[in-house]
User: Which sequence fits this backbone?
C-alpha cells in the first residue's frame, strides 16, 4: 500500500509514495521524504526528489535539511528509496535514507546528490548515524560543486556487525575543501565490509577509502579508487587499522599539480597494529611532489603490509616512497616500481644513486625534473621493477 508522507512510521509492507519537494527561495527548508519517525518491517521508502530553494543574494546563506526516507531509523527489513537531492549555495545537510541509524537487514537506496555553486554541504549516502547488524548501504552518487564538502558514503557514524557499505562515487566539480569517507566517517568494527568506492577530488581534499577512524576486529576494506588533486591526503582504507582488519586493493593517484604541490598517498592507514593486513595497492604519481606509502607510515606488532606497486609517469616531479618492501620477511610485503610508462626496458637504463645503509635510501633520477627517493630494506635490484 502506497502511503504519502506520514509523521509517524512506515511499517509492515507499506510503501512511501514518489514525491517532489521544492524549497522556497531565500528561506530555510526542511523536508522528510516518507516517515517522520522510522521505517521498519518490510516497508519501503519512495523515490523522492528534493530541490533546495535558491538565494537571490550570493551572500545570503540559507539552510536546507533533507531526509530521503526516515527522519529517524531504518529497521528490520526496511528499504530506502532511490532519492535525488539538488542543492545550491548555503548550508545544506542531506541524508540519503535515515537521519539516525540503519540496522537489522535494512538496505539503503541508491541515492543521487547534486551540488551546484558555492556552499557548505554535509552529505550522508545512507545514515547520519550508525549502520549495524546485516544492514547494507546503497550505491550512492555525489556530484560536488565548490565550497566545503563533507561526504559519508554510507554512515556518518560507525559500521559494525556484518554491515556492508555500498559502492559509492563522489566527483568534485570545483575548488573546495572536501572530506570523503567511503563507508563510515567513524569506525568499522566486528565483521563490517567496505564497499568499492570512487572519489575524484579537487585540491585540498582528504579521502578515506573506508573509515575515517579505526578498522578493527575482522573488518575488510573495499577496493577503492581515490584520485586526488593538488595538496591532498588519501588513505586507502582508514586512519588506523588494528585487530585482524584487512585492507582492500586500492588505487591512489595524484594526477596533476605543480612541483610545490605536495600530496600524501597512503595505501592502507596511517598506523597498522596487532595482526592487521594491508591490501595490494597501486600508488600512482603523475604530478606534484608526492609522499607515497604502500601500507602505513607506522607498522606495529604483527601487522603486515601488502604487495604494492608504485607507478611513475613523465612529469611526476620529486617524489618519495616511504616503505618499499622487498620480501624476505619484510613487514612491507613485496613491492614493485613500475617504470613502463617512462619507456624504460631494462635495469641498466635506470640512474640510481648508491644505497645509503644509514638512511636506507637511494634516489632514482628519471630526468632533470623527475626523481624519487626510495626508502627500502636494501639496495634496489632488477626484480624490484616492472619494465616496458
Assistant:
Amino acid at each position: 500500500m502506497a502511503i504519502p508522507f506520514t509523521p509517524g512510521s512506515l511499517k509492515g509492507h507499506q510503501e512511501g509514495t514518489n514525491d517532489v519537494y521544492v524549497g522556497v527561495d531565500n528561506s530555510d527548508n526542511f523536508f522528510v521524504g516518507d516517515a517522520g519517525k522510522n521505517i521498519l518491517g518490510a516497508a519501503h521508502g519512495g523515490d523522492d526528489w528534493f530541490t533546495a530553494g535558491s538565494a537571490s543574494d550570493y551572500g545570503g546563506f540559507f539552510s536546507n535539511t533533507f531526509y530521503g526516507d526516515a527522519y529517524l531509523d531504518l529497521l528490520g527489513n526496511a528499504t530506502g528509496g532511490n532519492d535525488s537531492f539538488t542543492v545550491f549555495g548555503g548550508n545544506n545537510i542531506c541524508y540519503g535514507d535515515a537521519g539516525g541509524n540503519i540496522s537489522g537487514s535494512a538496505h539503503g537506496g541508491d541515492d543521487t546528490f547534486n551540488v551546484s555553486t558555492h556552499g557548505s554541504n554535509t552529505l550522508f549516502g545512507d545514515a547520519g548515524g550508525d549502520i549495524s547488524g546485516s544492514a547494507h548501504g546503497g550505491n550512492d552518487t555525489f556530484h560536488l560543486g565548490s565550497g566545503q564538502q563533507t561526504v559519508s558514503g554510507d554512515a556518518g557514524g560507525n559500521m559494525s556487525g556484518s554491515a556492508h557499505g555500498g559502492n559509492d562515487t563522489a566527483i568534485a566539480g570545483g575548488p573546495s575543501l572536501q572530506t570523503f569517507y567511503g563507508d563510515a566517517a567513524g569506525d568499522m568494527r566486528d565483521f563490517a565490509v567496505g564497499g568499492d568506492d570512487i572519489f575524484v577530488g579537487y585540491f585540498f581534499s582528504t579521502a578515506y577509502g573506508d573509515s575515517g577512524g579505526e578498522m578493527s576486529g575482522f573488518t575488510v576494506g573495499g577496493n577503492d579508487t581515490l584520485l586526488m588533486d593538488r595538496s591532498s591526503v588519501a588513505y586507502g582504507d582508514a586512519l588506523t587499522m588494528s585487530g585482524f582488519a584487512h585492507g582492500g586493493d586500492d588505487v591512489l593517484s595524484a594526477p596533476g599539480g605543480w612541483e610545490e604541490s605536495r600530496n600524501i598517498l597512503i595505501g592502507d592507514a596511517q598506523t597498522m597494529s596487532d595482526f592487521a593486513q594491508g591490501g595490494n595497492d597501486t600508488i600512482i604519481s603523475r604530478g606534484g611532489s608526492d609522499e607515497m606509502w604502500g601500507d602505513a607510515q607506522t607498522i606495529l606488532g604483527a601487522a603486515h603490509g601488502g604487495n604494492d606497486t608504485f607507478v611513475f609517469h613523465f612529469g611526476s616531479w620529486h617524489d618519495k616512497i616511504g616503505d618499499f618492501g622487498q620480501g624476505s620477511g619484510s613487514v612491507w610485503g613485496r613491492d614493485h616500481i613500475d617504470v613502463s610508462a617512462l619507456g624504460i626496458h631494462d635495469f641498466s637504463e635506470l640512474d640510481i644513486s648508491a644505497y645509503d645503509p644509514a638512511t636506507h635510501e637511494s634516489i632514482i633520477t628519471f630526468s632533470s625534473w623527475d626523481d624519487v627517493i626510495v626508502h627500502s630494506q636494501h639496495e634496489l635490484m632488477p626484480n624490484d621493477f616492472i619494465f616496458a
In short: The mean pLDDT is 94. The chain has one domain: 2-342. Residues 2-342 form one domain.
